[in-house]
Amino acid sequence: MTHFGLIVFLTNNIKLMKNALFGLFMALGAGMSYGQAQAEVQQLGGKEIYLMSEPVASYEIVSSVRTGPKFSSLLTRGIYNEHVNDKATQYVNKSIRRLQKKGIEFDALVYRTGKKIEAVKFTEKSDRLANVQEVNGMHVFVMASPLQAFEVTDQVANGVNLLPFFTYGWFNNSIERDVAKYSKKAAKTENVNAVLYQSGRRASLIKLD
After folding, report:
1. Which domain holds residue 166?
2. How many domains does the chain fold into?
3. Which of 6, 70, 108, 142 holds its CA 20 to 30 A away from the CA of 42?
4. 83-94: per-residue pLDDT in tens?
5. Exposed/middle/buried for residue 91 (C-beta within 10 Å: 0-12, 13-18, 19+)
């Protein structure tokens, strides 16, 4: 099958493949929930960014934006795929541009799972506070700072993502799939109860006080 033929095939079966891959991912045990650990989130483009976290302040959802395949991954047949912070920055910048073009007013962007970001407007003061998700029993701080004191015990690297490679770059792991890899490694490490990710391919394994 030619490269063009493969792309056509993947395009025609994109929904089926995405559902199957997501089901497989969930079956591998990346259980997610919101814990009690809190964080202060970053701002990008003047907007508060909640990555795999839930704002403490109440809000209303005003819109949502989806992201598609990354051309850098497509052109390299999946050999190149972005780090979490690369994906997050691209998602955020793309969302801000689309929302501003539509004239939609919002205070923050909230990413939970998959490849969709929600634009929200707060109904009370937020103070950039969030409850972070728990993945595989680990609190995950994604481009956010824990409010409580912590100790760094180790660092782990995320290896090459096989999903983009085997799909010729048509599919790139979503943020929560990458973070789940870190949390699985953390769950196998003693005296660790959280993962702190800021940038690059490495994440810190930490112990919250």
Report:
1. 3-208
2. 1
3. 70
4. 788 878 887 888
5. buried
